[in-house]
């Protein structure tokens, strides 16, 4: 079973190389730029590195999100748990680990280690929420472009409005907290939201032949 899962993951890495590798390139660029003093690597990781992982989220759902492969995906006898949970969880934790590591590396004179470490810990549920929001929207609409654009719109709307109307699902609470709120206030709610999105994604994959909002062309 492990061999089969690894084979599938290697297949995703091989066929979606650009989408898979893009976040790693961004993380490396941020660390090098911060080390040589070209720019503030921490801010780069916050405003660019945080949302760039939506691309590997699209990569892991590329079959259901591609109009050319959608009909094949619906007819294949795939495991909803493996495709809907194991692969997204593995990639989200993998990218989350490298993202948090890059945050810790990008420490500058204005941010001590304790503050940066606290940001890294509190950003993890938001990171997971963005990843699973992307895969769930792709599986809901069965269209990668729609899932990608809706997620990015949600992220940037919260970023530029300070989370107006987003309540506890404000994704930048760990870096720019809302007024009269603590940085930890939304952590539990966001972890719960991740679990809900996981369940929804599994259901959308399991009942993919019955439920879709866009017609297969």
Quick tags:
single chain; 217 residues; mainly alpha; 10 helices; 70% helix
Overview of this structure, please?
With about 220 residues, this protein is mainly alpha-helical. Helices cover about 70% and strands about 0% of the residues. It has ten helices and no strands. The model has no long low-confidence stretch (mean pLDDT about 85).
Q: What's this entry about, in short?
A:
The chain is mainly α and 217 residues long. 70% of the residues lie in helices and 0% in strands. The mean pLDDT is 83.
**Number of alpha- plus pi-helical segments:** 10
The number of strands is 0
Net shape: globular
The stretches of 5 or more residues where confidence is low (pLDDT under 50) are: none
What is the average of the pLDDT values? 83
Rg over CA atoms: 18 Å
Class from helix and strand fractions:
mainly alpha
Proportion of strand residues:
under 5%
What proportion of the residues is helical, as a percent range? over 70%
Question: In whole angstroms, how far apart are the ends?
Answer: 34 Å
Question: How would a crystallographer describe the biggest sheet?
Answer: none
Query: SSE order in H/E notation?
Result: HHHHHHHHHH
């Amino acid at each position: 079973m492990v061999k089969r899962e690894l084979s599938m993951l290697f297949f995703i890495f091989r066929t979606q190389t650009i989408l898979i590798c893009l976040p790693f390139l961004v993380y490396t660029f941020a660390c090098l730029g911060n080390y040589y003093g070209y720019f503030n690597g921490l801010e780069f990781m916050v405003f660019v590195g945080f949302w760039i992982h939506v691309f590997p989220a699209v990569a892991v759902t590329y079959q259901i999100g591609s109009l050319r492969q959608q009909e094949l995906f619906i007819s294949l006898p795939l495991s909803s748990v493996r495709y809907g949970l194991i692969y997204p969880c593995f990639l989200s934790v993998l990218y989350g680990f490298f993202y948090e590591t890059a945050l810790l590396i990008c420490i500058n004179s204005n941010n001590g280690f304790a503050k940066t470490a606290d940001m890294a810990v509190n950003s993890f549920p938001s990171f997971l929420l963005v990843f699973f929001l992307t895969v769930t929207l792709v599986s809901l609409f069965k269209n990668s472009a729609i899932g990608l654009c809706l997620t990015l719109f949600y992220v940037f709307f919260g970023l530029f409005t300070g989370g107006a109307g987003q309540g506890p699902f404000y994704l930048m609470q760990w870096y720019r907290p809302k007024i009269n709120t603590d940085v930890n206030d939304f952590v539990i709610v966001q972890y719960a939201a991740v679990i809900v999105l996981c369940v929804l994604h599994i259901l959308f994959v399991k009942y993919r032949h019955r439920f879709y909002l866009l017609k297969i062309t």
